[in-house]
Task: structure prediction
Amino acid sequence: MTVTLTVNGEQRSARAEARALLSDFLRHELGLTGTHVSCEQGVCGSCTVLVDGEPVRSCLMLAVQADRCRLETVEGLADGGELGPLQEAMLAEGGLQCGFCTPGVLMSLTYADRAGLSGTEAVDEVLTGHLCRCTGYQGIRAAIERHWQGKDTPR
Ligand code: FES
Ligand code: FES
Result:
């Protein structure tokens, strides 16, 4: 069937098999390869996107279920060539190494930001849903705190 949705403010349509995962649809049909796929079991969080404002594991959702939904992916966080504030904070604090987990982490953080979450418990809550093999989480934690404290983020 044809799936029509809004991604990062732009209406897109593409064909999807009934069994196609949303993660694969985003990457292969829409060319939005910023959404990463690792475990495909809903464990690692790397495929997290926002669907109608809610964080969703896109490897656990069918593309056809996203028909007529509003999606946000990591590609929507930057403004042209300019990184968004969360991305700047990650960069400033060394919150990534290989970067594989980063798009999913950023989307969960975007949700937390909008929900008005802050503080250590909120940081823990966000990171609970994401596996990072590289950073030991300290850089990510520092980036979140930097962002929530509204510090400047010089490179
Ligand atoms: S690839 Fe979706 S949670 Fe790991
Ligand atoms: S930066 Fe490599 S998995 Fe998180």
User: Anything to note?
Assistant: The longest strand covers residues 2-7. The CA atoms of residues 19 and 62 lie 7 Å apart. The chain has five helices and five strands.
